[in-house]
Queue: 2 jobs
Job 1
Amino acid sequence: MASRSLDISQIRSDFPILHRENRSKPLAFLDNAATSQKPACVINAISDYYTHTNSNVHRGVYELAEDAENLYHQARKSIARRFNVTVDQVVFVRGATEGLNLVAQSFGPLVLEQGDAMILSEMEHHANIVPWQILSQKIGFEIRVCPTLPNGSLDREWISREFRKKNLKLIALTALSNTLGTVNPIEEIVAEARQYGIKTVIDGAQSVPHQKIDFQKLGCDFFAFSGHKIFGPMGIGVVLGSKDSLQNMPPYQGGGDMIDQVSFEGTTFAPVPQRFEAGTPNVAGAIGLGKAIDYFDQFEISDVVNHENNLYQIARTGLAEIAGFVEHGTTPHKAAVLSFTIEGIHPHDLATFLDAQGIAIRTGHHCCQPLMKVLGVEATARASFALYNTEEEANRLVDAVKKAVSILK
Ligand code: PMP
């Protein structure tokens, strides 16, 4: 049960890295859309695992192996609880990228044939574009791309029109844009898709630290995310799948741990989720992710979102005073991701200036090259906030950007 209040200074003391400096200045980490920092409980869980419990899972009869197996299973249970699924719906992967590749490679061919079509949106991350393009080259289906409206929201009417077309079989959509911050109406889109029997794949990479997802209620076929964006370790992520879809899917990779019986005459496969988890898993990563989910579960998501939005508003209001400031993504339905450009200043120069002030932001195409083309820019600067950021950091960002403009312009 969520009960912990959002005492930011107390929360900051949970994250050891926030106390280091960046270029000899206090670190203001405003690149949370790229990755989040880790609380000590996650770091300790990983360290404890290797110190006290390390053993391969699944095959050991000795106590150590049993302990490792129990911790690994516990992590799967924490994830299942958070997303309201059963443990057999939780498939461990390396991250959202691998998850989306798994879905495209294993599930895609079950629903997409030559002459069919699927929908992506202009605001997708490359991780939710390229796997489908690779599949489309093999199968010969068409990828249709939902336009972005000037405020950075999806063209909803376009989607409804496409859904009515006979050969439309699947939509793969980000829940939350890593570049624009747009929160897409996935509940509404999934519900509409289901009326037409259209399959739904949600890229939840950015959603997990800003939204509470009830997978059953959402009703999509797949939801993929990375542990490192939700205070967990890198190299671990999850695909949540509907039972029906997972049951019918062939393996993604072959090897140990994903089989039932192997012979040279033929091999049978393990039930889900093991069927999709070939090889020695990232046990420490899964345990770290389970801890991260438990950590995040202490807080009410509405408290987190209100806090982050407050920081976002401080930053955008302050930056909007700068001549030539353009925010990319202005829909009211957005998370605390602030992408912007300032006329006459290259985002990289700006980020380098901020770095010297201790402020970490990201610049570039954010793995969204098609979106950059739509926005008519090569790169943006992006500040993205998390629950441990402070008003002081948002104000430091504004002051530092203003200073940069006075010097660089
Ligand atoms: N989708 C979105 C929207 C993302 O922001 C990211 C990470 N930037 C990914 C997918 C891919 O995540 P990962 O690199 O952790 O696999």
Job 2
Amino acid sequence: MIAFENVTKKFPDGTLALQELNLQIKQGEFISIIGRSGAGKSTLLRLTNGMILPSTGKVHVLGFHLGDRESQKTLRLVRREVGFIFQHFNLIKTHTVLSNVLMGRLGYTGTFRGMFGLFTDQDEEMAVSVLKEVGLKDQINKRVDQLSGGQQQRVAIARAIVQQPKIILADEPMASLDPKLSEIVLDLLYQFNQERKITVLVNVHVLELAKRRATRILGLNKGAVVFDGASQDLTSEKVSLVYGD
Ligand code: ADP
């Protein structure tokens, strides 16, 4: 489903964010990515949906090959199948919950129709149904800026789900939430992973949360994978390999 083949990412200023990465990810995996700040975790996610392209090597996602230059059409097709969830939610705060979730349908509707709010009844039914699943059925017509952080992240998850993605990438989605809300958000991602077989890759900076649901943990240190295994195999020795200097 996802494969990295000798992938190196060097930014124009010379920063080597990932080096010679080789990785295979199967459908339905729930992967937590851990590592210190700057280890390359979000670079890995951004390479997976083509937000950035590798300097050398290849990224294979859902049968598409992303090399160092890729057509806009390929990138559009990949991004439609891959939902992205951000630490700071990336919602339009002055719009309603429903209208934010409908944005997840843009890849199917087209930007022009979407700009004018020309979503189909089916789009709207889907959005409402997913909002019920994430526990926001009473907030559908509220403006996003009237919601708590935990609720806003659930709106962002709903927006990703109506995209009907095969993969969800979540970049520190719990980082601005308190511990209880963090668990709720993580468990929602897990629920969708289990029910819809969506592959989930999530960057997590709290180790306990990283271990909570993951079928596999990837530990990055200075742009290299230094741990790849099940959470029960993440011994304190391995943890210091991941977080050590
Ligand atoms: P993490 O998500 O683990 O905190 P990142 O993937 O964001 O790490 O960053 C990895 C390295 O790449 C860091 O040294 C970071 O400063 C650098 N980096 C990230 N994005 C850019 C960019 N656009 N230009 C230059 N350096 C970058």
